[in-house]
Amino acid sequence: MFTEFNYVSSIREAEELAALIGRQGRADYIAADTEFIRITEYFPKLALLQLNIAGQVYLVDPLQPGLALVLQALLTSKARFLIFSGSEDLEILASYGQKTAAMFTLPDSCCDLQLMAAFAGHSFGRGLYTLVKDLCGIELNKGQTCSDWLQRPLSSEQLSYAVLDVKYLPELFEKLDGLLTERNRGWFAAEMTERRAAALCRPDPARCYRAVGGAGALEDADLALLQYLCQKRMEFGQEHDEALNRIITGKALCQLSHVHPTTLQGLVNCGMKWGAVREHGEMILSWIQDGLTRGIPEQLPLPFDYFAHARELNDDLRRLRHVIEHRARQERVMPELLGGKKALYDLCLSRFEGRAGWLERSWRRELLGQLPLIDFSKQKNLPARPGTSSDAGKQN
Prior knowledge:
CATH superfamily of the largest domain: Ribonuclease H-like superfamily/Ribonuclease H
Shape: globular
Strand content: 5-15%
Distance between the termini: 57 Å
Helix content: 40-55%
Radius of gyration: 24 Å
Number of strands: 6
Structural class: alpha/beta
Strand order of the largest sheet: 1-4-3-2-5-6
Order of helices and strands: EHEEEHEHEHHHHHHHHHHHH
CATH class of the largest domain: Alpha Beta
């Protein structure tokens, strides 16, 4: 197994690595990966940063001094920044950059190779080792996925695993780039621009309720309570660095908002775990009472899955899904890139609110063209909630 690497754990080593990063230009590659721990905390703890620069692998120990120097150079690099299934990596690097180097940014040219494979029409969601085997002809052996990456010293097996995460990314990029058409290469670049921006976007506690599964089935008063509970849960989690599901699980949120329990046993009956009830139960009961007293806000946008519960629109949604999958295959991109059911529900919601949806923006609009209309007249009891467009039933 390949195990050659440079372990960066001192200020001097960090300075040398930062200088090397600074010398990389737009024609160069920097491959990156992170190992992190996120079990009981809201904010992930960076345990190791792996970089491949000019064929040399560097393992940066964030528990030692010098991380800020490396991040300052890395986050402003002009080199092509290669990652694999890297949405969390981007978020962690941006967050740590702000915390340690006072820089909330990311490299200009981010390139997620798992995503690139989908734009090349090769596969969607395949793991790194499968793609390396398929495209590079190299079979790797890994087995440290669930390791304790905060332990020190790291074992030789952990170090080998970490090296392999970045060793073959430049070669894999070259193989995938050869499979892309010029148009798909442009679409991939546009998607990466969006994903980079998303990694730099901080969640809004007052709007996170919209992504809760099942929220679309709630009545207005219950939805208003859900909004309040989600906001308080996120604010508490951020302030105390506690994982959100350790406060209230996602599955329990809608039930709490619908039932309005007034006792600790009532919280348990709504699906909360006993440990969370013991630690946070009284606080959550006070949130419920405060939320009910607050009433329905003037602005209460519909949840993202509102139209997931509109059975009358099933035929329209099936027709749309068929059109989307057909056009994606015609352009040699994996249909899964178009978001599946969630994207269809977003399209319904956006058209209902009189705005362009996710499928009707950026490269997706170019790929899909004009999509079929949705006949909202089929659905009974369409809402007239504050926060929606006055032209809600019209479509562009």
